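Comment thread on ticket #2218

A.B. wrote:
> Attaching the input chain for the structure job we discussed in standup.
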Amino acid sequence: MDDNGQISVDFLVGISLFLITLTFTVQFVPGLFTSVSSGDESIGFVAYRTASILTEDSGWWGNGTDSGSDWETHINNTMRIGIAADDDINTRLTNTPNLLSRSKVIELNALSEDTLVTKLGLYDDINGAHMSYGYNISITSNGHPLVINNTSTVIGQIPPITTDILMANRFVLVEMGNVAQFNATDITTTLPTPNNMTLINITGIQNEDVDIRITNFNTTGPNPQFLNATLNGMILSIPADYDAYKKKDGGKYSVYSDPLNSTDTLKLVFDQNLFTINSTYQIELDFNGMNFSNPGPPYTEYTNNTETLYEPAYLTVKVWK
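C.D. wrote:
> Ran it. Output below, let me know if you need it in another format.
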């Protein structure tokens, strides 16, 4: 009789799977039960919570007799800070999370550090004393901070190099303001035609910079180019009064340079402080080597062609102790 023991293949497979499962459980499961109030996990929770509040909440204000989500116009009575766009200022929720309001982002940039830390809960309560976390909140596009109302959207301190930093990212759409898109074949000029000049009327006080973009130029001659802009007969200067950019063949905007081809887009951003009276302003744009063949008056109205511009971006919240 043979006394050697034999182990079945089924047993070997079963015990192997058991050991693999046990090893996985020992390594990964304990992390699931770590208290969110300890160490890095608590900071990670703060970063996630802050990013969620900012992008999913439109905020709230109240004074005992009235309230609403338009906290950006009631700073002294702000109860919650959120920058999601309002659907209805009388409701506490938004139907468009991750769509950020331009006016709320502007006011977020202007808030004092004490208000920001308190309203967003960027602190730890130790024996009744508030110990503020280090924080950095930014909205970036293509790796660069978005500039809204001439201010870069970076709030807080510069993150340290030698400290552990917890971070939360949210993909968002940011309301950048109004922009007027024009087809060069539709905007008007003065007689006689053809003409290298076009006229655009701007009516009323402007509460934000005037953004004009023109496409589909009818170019003539060897060196088509944008020359200058005149407001009610006064020649404007760059960059004191406006900025000029060009987008070539569907690429990205860069500072304007000649030539201006038929496939390019011209972007002109005029300072809102040029339009401070409730009146009609006339901007004359002069070109070389262009043919504007649609005669006026009446001339093209800026306000009739405006639409809201949204920019895809990332909101990033970084928190550290």
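A.B. wrote:
> Thanks. Noting for the ticket: Residues 135 and 319 are 4 Å apart (CA to CA).
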